[in-house]
Specification:
Shape: globular
CATH architecture: Alpha-Beta Barrel
Largest sheet: 8 strands, parallel
Distance between the termini: 24 Å
Order of helices and strands: HEHEHEHEHEHEHEHEH
Number of helices: 9
Number of strands: 8
Structural class: alpha/beta
Bound molecules: pyridoxal-5'-phosphate
CATH topology: TIM Barrel
Radius of gyration: 17 Å
Helix content: 40-55%
CATH class: Alpha Beta
Amino acid sequence: MSLIKNNLDKINRQITDAAISCSRKASDIQLIAVSKRKSVEAIMDGIKSGATHFGENYIQEAMKKIDEIGKDNACWHFIGHLQSNKAKFAVQYFDYIHTIDSLKLAKELNKQAKKIQKIQKILLQVNIGKEASKSGTNNEDAIELVAQIKGLENISLQGLMCMPPYFSEPEEARIYFQQLVQIKEKIIEQNFDNVSMEHLSMGMSNDFQVAIEEGSTMVRVGTSIFGRRD
Ligand SMILES: *Cc1c(COP(=O)(O)O)cnc(C)c1O
C-alpha cells in the first residue's frame, strides 16, 4: 500500500470520527487533497487511492498538471490567490474557486465564464484573522460584497472560505471558524437570490477536526496526505 493511500485512509477515518463526535454525517464533509507543489505522480497515486477532489494554488502549475491528468478525472478546486488576469484560466480549469475577495475579480470571472457558457462555482474568502499576509475580504465587508456579486449571472456563490492564523494548538482556531459561521448566518438572513451558503471551506492538516466540529463542509488537507512541501 502506498504512503499516500495510507495517509488518505487515516484522514478519512479522522473525518468520520470528527463528524460522529458532533452528530454530523461524514458524507457532508468533502475532503480536498491539496496538491500544490506536488507531482503529477503523487496526484495519480491519490486518485488511485480514492481521492476525488484536489486543491491547487498556482494557476500555471495547475494547468500543466491538470492537462496531464485530465480535467474530468477529478474535481478541481482553486484555493490560491487569484489575479484578475488569470481569471480566464481559472474558469477553464477549475470546478470551484474558493478565493473570491473583490467585486473586480468576481466581475472578471463572470465575464470569462460567460464566454465559455459556464456557471462558475465560487466561494468568498474572508480574511478572518485580519492578517496583512493573507487575502480575503474583511469580515465587515463580506455581506456587502455578496450583495454586489449576487447579480452576476455566470457565477454561483456557494459559500465561504477562510484560513485562520496558524496555531500549533488547533483549539485556538475554533473561534475563527465560529466567526465564519456567524458571517454565513448573517448572509443567510439577507435571503439573497442566487446565493447559496451550502459550503464552508475551512480546516487544514492541523485543524480540520475542529473545523468539522464547527460546521466545515470542505476540508483542505495537504501535508497530512502528501507530506511536507519543499
Ligand atoms: C496549502 C494550503 C492548504 C493545505 O495546508 P496543509 O497544512 O498542508 O494541510 C489548505 N488551504 C490553503 C488555502 C492552502 O494554501
